[in-house]
């Protein structure tokens, strides 16, 4: 029995991961079914892909054409839920993000140190925690919105739900989805979530909606990532496990609700965290998932932060503890800013 305890504990820590994967695959299957039903010849009962109605960018494009408000309610509901929680759609529902995240990129093996995943400036130098940098996705979103009133609609080219739907229909009708194949190559070369993190305009809009609700406390937000700094050992495992390679969770020295621009509330950081109770997913003040591990602060009688068994080579000493008091709900994050 003693020999099985580590395995059982490991399986228990992976419960959230498998739950999220199941939810992602369920939404992906539903998306493909709706795309198949809407492809030629259209189904008698399912004539459209409802996911496209949930798309705020698609809804805005439709409103510019027809000026009808009623069809916008699914997209407005998604923006409201994002305001009350964060960018959960990208981590749990988005079909394109689900496929890209499962790409076995070689960068997963190469980026095993914090310096490897930190954002860099135009000169190639690693940016310190809390530093801001221009993001292509926000500039792209702004350009797309500015062009819409002039009758130039390029959302069909960059909207992830439109890309996923069009690619699925192309496959079902025997065509080659060139844009989708290009995104797969990009995921292999630059990382599975590079598109979501750096380019996706829908992700930029959802990040902005989540950032607008950053003032909500964890007892008021529908879903929050909460940190207990007293339990954190600053090992860096959370950043390296994050699909978006967000470093703010490891860098920040404050407790409470964390809200990085790119955080998709997927919970992978919780399962990688070795510090008992350092990270948790909270819904309306109630914990629904919490990190578990052998590392505890010395005040609780457990292992100290400087214990070698609680440290990892992924965290560079030059950055360890950096950003204390710098990255919170009021400052732009490192990787996700």
What does this molecule look like?
The protein is mainly alpha-helical. The chain has 2 domains: 11-211, no CATH class; 216-310, Alpha-Beta Plaits. Helices cover 46% and strands 5% of the residues. It is built from 18 helices and 4 strands. It has a 4-stranded antiparallel sheet. β3 and β4 (286-290) form a beta hairpin. α2 crosses α7 and α4 packs antiparallel against α5 (73-84). The radius of gyration is 21 Å and the shape is globular. Mean pLDDT is 81; it is low at 1-12 and 313-337.
Please give the radius of gyration in angstroms.
21 Å
Approximate strand percentage: 5-15%
Domain unit count: 2
SSE string, helix = H, strand = E?
A: HHHHHHHHHHHHHHHEHHEHEE
Helix content class: 40-55%
Terminal CA distance: 46 Å
With helices defined by DSSP (H or I, 4 residues minimum), what is the helix count?
18
Query: What is the approximate shape?
Result: globular
Largest sheet: 4 strands, antiparallel
**Overall pLDDT confidence:** 81
What topology, given as strand order, has the largest sheet? 2-1-3-4
Unreliable runs: 1-12, 313-337
Instruction: Specify the structural class.
Output: mainly alpha
Total beta strand runs = 4
Write the layout of secondary structure elements.
Layout: H1 5-13, H2 15-38, H3 51-54, H4 56-66, H5 73-84, H6 88-92, H7 95-101, H8 107-110, H9 114-117, H10 136-147, H11 155-158, H12 160-172, H13 178-190, H14 194-199, H15 201-212, E1 224-227, H16 237-241, H17 248-251, E2 256-258, H18 268-272, E3 279-283, E4 286-290
Antiparallel strand pairs: 1-2, 1-3, 3-4
Helix pairs in contact: 2-7, 2-12, 4-5, 5-15, 10-15
């Amino acid at each position: 029995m003693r020999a099985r305890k580590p395995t059982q504990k490991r399986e228990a820590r992976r419960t959230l991961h498998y739950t999220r994967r199941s939810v992602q695959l369920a939404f992906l299957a539903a998306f493909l079914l709706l795309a198949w039903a809407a492809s030629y010849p259209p189904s008698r009962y399912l004539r459209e892909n409802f996911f496209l109605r949930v798309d705020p960018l698609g809804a805005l494009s439709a409103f510019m054409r027809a000026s009808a408000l009623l069809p916008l309610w699914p997209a407005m509901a998604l923006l409201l839920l994002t305001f009350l929680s964060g960018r959960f759609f990208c981590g749990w529902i988005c079909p394109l993000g689900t496929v890209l995240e499962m790409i076995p990129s070689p960068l997963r093996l190469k980026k095993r140190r914090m310096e490897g995943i930190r954002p860099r400036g135009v000169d190639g130098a690693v940016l310190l925690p809390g530093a801001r940098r221009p993001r292509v996705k926000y500039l792209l979103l702004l350009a797309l919105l500015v062009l819409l009133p002039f009758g130039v609609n390029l959302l069909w080219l960059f909207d992830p739900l439109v890309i996923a739907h069009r690619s699925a229909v192309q496959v079902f009708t025997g065509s080659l989805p060139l844009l989708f194949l290009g995104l797969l190559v990009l995921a292999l070369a630059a990382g599975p979530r590079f598109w979501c993190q750096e380019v996706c305009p829908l992700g930029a809009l959802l990040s902005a909606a989540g950032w607008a609700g950053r003032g909500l406390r964890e007892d008021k937000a529908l879903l929050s990532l909460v940190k207990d700094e007293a339990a954190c050992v600053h090992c860096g495992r959370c950043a390296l496990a994050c699909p978006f390679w967000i470093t703010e969770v490891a860098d920040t020295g404050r407790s409470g609700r964390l809200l990085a621009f790119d955080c998709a509330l997927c919970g992978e950081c919780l399962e990688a965290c070795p510090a008992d109770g350092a990270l948790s997913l909270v819904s309306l003040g109630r914990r629904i998932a919490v990190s578990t591990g052998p590392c505890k602060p010395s005040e609780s009688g457990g292992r100290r932060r400087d214990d070698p068994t609680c440290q990892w080579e992924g965290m560079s000493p030059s950055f360890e503890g950096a950003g204390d008091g710098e990255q919170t709900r009021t400052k732009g994050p490192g990787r996700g800013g």
